Amino acid sequence: MSGLAYEVFVTPAISQSSGTLNLPDGEPMVWSPTATTLIYGEHDAVLVDPPFTTDTAREVVAWAEKTGRTVTEIYITHGHGDHWLGAPVVLERFPDAVVRATAGTKAHMDTLATAESREEFWGTLFPGRISTGPVDVKVVGEEGLSLEGHTLIPVEVGHSDSDDTTVLWVPSLKLAVAGDVVYNGVHLSLAESAGGGRDAWRRALDQVEALGAEFVVSSHKDPTRPDDPADIGRTRRYLDDVDRQLEHSHTSMEFFEAMTRLHPERINPGVLWFGALTLLSGEPAP
Questions:
Q1: What burial class does residue 235 get, using C-beta atoms within 10 Å of its C-beta: 0-12 exposed, 13-18 middle, 19+ buried?
Q2: Distance (Å, rounded) from C-alpha 286 to C-alpha 273?
Q3: Which residues are CB-neighbours of 90 under 8 A, at least 6 positions away?
Q4: CB under 8 Å to 134, separation ≥6 — which residues?
Q5: Which of 76, 136, 71, 72 is nearest to 102 (CA)?
Q6: Which one of 91, 207, 268, 281 has the lowest number of neighbouring Cβ atoms within 10 Å?
């Protein structure tokens, strides 16, 4: 049985049509850099979380082709569209590939099953750049995926920056493809973190940490940074800072400025600003 290897392709930040919503300094909003992981053996490969625009998905296809492997399965870590809407483009090149996700992730993906549902949010932000092709998702069970005799195990961790998120664990590589559970050098998406969401996110981080991974791939990462397990702790500390700053911030701007001072190294403050507006929209801080 041959060994496995992995590579990561990071789609750079993408400008979005955000209408009147800009950063406080007037800068336009961008979508965070998004990582796609290719896990491969001698002949075949599993692609995790293809990007969401048609053009970036084509770039990922070209990158995967350079390895000389055939993509046999596409695994989706969670239901946010930025991690799978480009799957139809990948399937054009690898038509026999099977799209896999857990039942919880599939349920979220099903909400974007039609062209109309995709257009309402994604088509508004990225007009003309979102595929309307079908994505037939097969639910993967506890047995996981098989790649040239190696098992790849979906680990359901619950809520992180959305509900029903998972991590793909590759024991032979000590690799955790962590989806949106772990962030690497990028501001966290906090829009769905109220009402106990951050505590649930910490429990998800605990599950990733318990795997003992030597490599942790974050779906949103600074492309200059390694796949460092220490980002589990860094993500946890960021959440702790969020809680502390919400106790003392009376406005979205106060919270935003405090968090950017604490984390000047993280990229894409726009996602933090959107979270600030969501968490402090005139209601008491959660």
A1: buried
A2: 16
A3: 47, 50, 57, 60, 61, 64, 71, 74, 97
A4: 88, 113
A5: 76
A6: 281
